[in-house]
Fold each of these.
Amino acid sequence: MSIRKFAAVLGRFLWLVFIVQATAGFFVDLPYNYWLGWLPAVAAIGLRLLPGRKARQQIVSDPPEPVEVEAPVTGRWSALNSPADKVPSHGTHSLGQTYAIDITAEGDESGKDARPGFSWLWPVARRNRAYPAFGAPLLAVADATVVHAEDGQRDHLSRTSLLGLLYFFFVEAAVRGAGPVRRVVGNHVVLDLGDGTHAMYAHVRRGSLAVRVGDRVRVGQAIGQCGNSGNTTEPHVHFQLMDGPDIDTARGVPFRWRGVGVPANREVFTVAPEGAPAASKSLTR
């Protein structure tokens, strides 16, 4: 096991210890000073900051050239947490997320099948079928080999209300972050594109993968469906390129989608199906 892999596993274990003892403290008197209970959390944060610090600084100051691939979806989508706006796009270099992007389907321009907005009070949660992204085909961005594929985790309800977000940030995200990485990315598939570049699709729909490890896929081939598994608030596609197949130790690689580029946050873009006119993007924000 590499040092980076060990640090990642140990960090999650320390977070789990912190959560368990913090929960236990509500019910019993712990046999040590209250402030000592924060040591596992402090140690976990330190482990995240130390490994690869020099490499992370180099990524930001001197990023490699983007790898151009096809878009992983077709239809009308909008971008969230985009590397076009900030790097690292998700606020962390961990799990190969430096240049990751989240995208969600918006329905057609007429407003039909529009994506539900945020609700302050009601409904507290929505079923996944309410979102046009749920069940949308995920496409291979290049000719590739499948090196990881799993789709056994459930798709949960949305977390797009005030109560839902409070539960997500203060309970669910903390618990998932302390567990194995698969609990964060949910169902996911990793493709080896060659030349040391790997593509990872996260939050895949349960039971939707049409590929397994060792399969060769062609660019544009449907490999699964967009879902709402793992650490998510609503159905969406999390896509990233990495320099290795292990999410725990891989570093992010910048990308460009052919005909689209890198959509900025809240930018709406449309990708035409194969054989239709070229992909395009709108500057709607």
Amino acid sequence: MTPAEKHAQVLKSTAKRLGFDFCGIAKAEFLELEAPRLEEWLNRNYQGKMSYLANHFEKRLDPTKLVEGAKTVVSLIYNYFPEKQLPHQPEDIKLAKYAYGADYHDVIRAKLTEFLEILGEEVGDINGRSFVDSAPVMERQWAQRAGLGWTGKNSLLLNREMGSFFFLAELIIDLEATPDTPLAKDYCGTCTACIDACPTDAIVQPEVIDASKCISYLTIELKEAIPNEFAGRMENWVFGCDICQDVCPWNRFSRPHQETAFQPNAELSHFTNREWVEMTEETFKRVFDKSAVKRTKFSGIKRNVDVLILKKPSS
């Protein structure tokens, strides 16, 4: 076994030990094919008000600009599919599944810190950084290169064994490891379920999202008034949106996660529209104390609730 093969084995065994569902390895190199795609996406202003996505263009494409001497990008999958969805009827206010429990940034970041510590013990001194949706890393593209899946028409990474209800995380390290083989096939075929189901027409073409139309963007990233054209088309999603995943045939393979931190807050489990409408800032802080929902702040959630209930733009 070569050193690179041994390192790959250590990476995958460590990932399994820490509860990651899949671990894929790719050579750290410039994402040449992605450069024109990213540039065109930005030029079309599909990022909406997320101006930060236009920053660090080179870093997004070249991992060696994030970690000096980087040789390997390790992509990791961590399941968040719940055993039970929060109960709701079509008229009920809904929350994206990934936000049911504790903030995934905190949960996974702790695991990645431990991952790097274990690597140091197993293979000696290495230089590396961990990422979980927190830096200019094109995580889906790296995961695809690492053989973990393919890009669906909704732009999400799809995995044949578990669909798409999972988080992606990365390690960029200066350790050489044998790379995995990317999938050579797109398994979406002629299916257009996600495109057909999107109520705001955010999927402008296969694999391309106009984020400024996406319900997740409107309820989380947009800090100003929700445009009038979307006020009546949000299908009661107050934070995030699962529509394009819920209709995806590959998510019939989703299985419940084993992460206790992702279990929903007991109080949240019994929220009705009345609780959402009458929620005070004190209740918001208590219920969402460790949740990703805190990103919107109380004012953001109240804006979203008002839009959903009144079906008119925020002011």
Amino acid sequence: MPRRPRMPPGRPGLPHHELEALLERSRLDPTEEPAFFRSLLDATVYIHVPVSDDSKHIRVVQFRHPDGFDAIPFFTSPQKAQFASSRAVRIVELCGHDLLSQTRGATLMLNPNDGGAVLYPEEIASLLDTGFMARVEKIEYSGLHIRPAANAPAWLEDAVRTSVQDADFVAEAYLLESNPSDRWNERPGLVIYLVVDHAFADRAARMVTAAVQPLCGHHDTVIDVMIHDVTQPLPDALVNVEMVPIYRRAEETQ
């Protein structure tokens, strides 16, 4: 195997066994996720590059994720990288920050053979620019009542609209109020309701969460994100009222 490039002087990186210990803690306790992702920036990570590439620049290997998008695999240890390798690739080690910054705009997947985390471009940009990685918790709601939001804060509307305006997979965005009952005698929560191309449902939810979550420190109302498949009709709660989206994707003209 060709000699692997070494880390630049002064940036030895977090040892992979320490990084994997942080990763395991974050899996057991989601509150540990921010610490793991911040550590990832300074850690040594491992990628695959074509074994026969003569380019002066590193060309990373991508794969097609089962959900239909291309992703760059990277690994927390040389052993994990070797397990997923083939004769067509060689393993290169580099700093996590360097990998994320040099592949900015791409989707990455950590330890794909272990079912690792997908990092979407918007999340990577947030991590690089601010050191913040949003926490996402998926909850299955049943019987939740929604209606148009009467007093949604202006900052929330601005943040949602800005986050989706360049995402062609988001068709519409609404701001709603939510309540577990239909009596509305308690203070309602807020819902960011996204109408999305189904293949991009996860990315859309996390993209908006990454934009909104850092701004929520001064707001004491629960804010959820709900995803609606663009191919399905809107629920009656939205159809039977005069509901105007805060964002609507521009239709392409011939």
Amino acid sequence: MLLYAETLPSVLSPLDPRPVELVNANGRADFVLVCEHAGIAVPGRLKNLGLPAAEILGHIAYDIGAEGVARCLADRLDAPLFLQRYSRLVIDCNRPFSAPDCVPEVSDGTVVPGNLQLAEYHRRQRYAEIHEPFHREVALFLDRRATAGSPAVLVAVHSFTPRLAGGPERPWQLGVLSNRDRSFAERFLGSFQERNPTTICAHNEPYVVDDQGDYTIPVHGEARGLLHLLLEIRNDLIGDPEGQRRWASLIADGLIDAREKKHVND
């Protein structure tokens, strides 16, 4: 963990939101949901990172629709959900500190003026005030589950844009990501495809999970030996409440089925 120098001025003011919001803390399901790119908040002292307001509402700033899907999932599954309130342009809470895009200077071709040539201590400051508190609360929650002997299945909820600037169209509607332990991801994907044969979905598309490009799955899932997966839903499908509810319902059914199959196999 990074040490925070108390002599540095805080990046967050009393008017800024807390980095983490815990929804349905007493949820009884085995599932623990995390949405690291839910928020669009930018600390007031960072002055929108020098970006026009439209960019802060676009896919480079947060995962469009992911929070809505995650909230619907939490309700349908009766699962706790951790939401991260700050834009990933401020600090990406699904990246280790060493990743260049933990504080991105450019995102999908858009230059982020407030991140250019950022001093090391300013990067550490954002990490210490936003990234660390978020993941500390997730870790403490999972610790309590482990101490109580309660199972936990970690599910990270994300969305992706149908096409990056200058890139090809992405045909997938749902990506199911994992790395070292593919067991639960593949079980869920098989169940989901059985239930939704016309949906275009795949393992490790349009991204992959690894130690440099991800934080939640390697640290909270793999290192703890928990069942886990990361979901990527194409954001044009979940841009409104109706789409969010529909996809949450489809995903919840697949998760429950995959969990039940795990119990049967055990």
